[in-house]
Amino acid sequence: MGGIIRFLNTPITTVQGSSLTPVDLLITVGIVLLFYILARVGARQFQNRLEGRLKLTATNRRLLRSTVFLSILFAGVYTSLSSLGINLSIFLVPLGALSIGLGLGLQNLASNYIAGLVLMTEGTIRDGDVIEVDGIRGTVQEMSLRTTVVKTFSNTEVIVPNSLMVSQRLDNWTKSDQILRIESQIGVAYGTDISVVHEILHSHIAAHSAVLSKPEPRTFLVEFADSALLFRIQYWIDDPSQRLSSLSEILEAIYCGLQERGVSIPFPQRDVWLKGDSFGQNGPLVSTANSDL
Questions:
Q1: What per-residue confidence (pLDDT) applies to 46?
Q2: Residues of the chain with pLDDT under 50
Q3: Taking the mean position of all CA atoms in its chain, how far away is CA 140?
Q4: Which of 3, 7, 54, 268 has CA 20 to 30 A from 257's CA?
Q5: Residue range 161-198, pLDDT digits in tens
Q6: Which domains occur in the chain, in start order?
Q7: Which is it for strands 218-224 and 136-143: parallel, antiparallel or unpaired?
Q8: SS3 198
């Protein structure tokens, strides 16, 4: 036992003029572990007691939990180093030089963390929002300080750097509410009764279960096109996941309704004139067309 005690109190190195013994190392490790446990417990207690009282988004709750955990853990590291008698001020100059080097080499990483902090504090996006950025469209699954996980409508999970969210145009379809406007165009033949078309379009749109009654669905005659009268339909839904399915079902119903009322949907046509050559009626024929075909 005496040998163990002598070993634990035997200096193994010197730090800033102070002897460092195995006992000092054990105490330092113990302090770090103690503060690590306190950090885990503190973050859990914050989640259980304070999150229910604070009306925060899931993203901001994760940010606050991480802040509580890292703050307590940093205090533990600082206390453990101070217990060894280390003057931490001597590390300021080397840390400053190191931070410059890291800043030059890790600019993209740092920009992602800063962008994530900006997004979380401003509440630009939240978990469950439907967004579109840089051609990526989907639902926000999870947001961290560095990246955001977006689940696309193709059921793939895309990990998007937060710096992209800040530098590119970001469309948040559900920031204030879940209501989306859906639009499409339909062409009918010239000579069709316009009031009949409005009636068919409006009735089949309003009959769909996903379509909201307020705002009311709308139909417009928007263009006299080359081959058709073009109508635009607009309606609103409160479930972004039904964006494509509702449009497909409504267009199918409108197509059947137009057929039942004898309204035709035209398609582009071109006339081709065949003229005989100068060698006579039985000579070879040359086809010409005044069109873009």
A1: 73
A2: 279, 282-293
A3: 5
A4: 268
A5: 998 988 889 888 888 888 889 999 999 999 999 999 99
A6: 2-86 (no CATH), 124-172 (2.30.30.60), 180-260 (3.30.70.100)
A7: unpaired
A8: helix
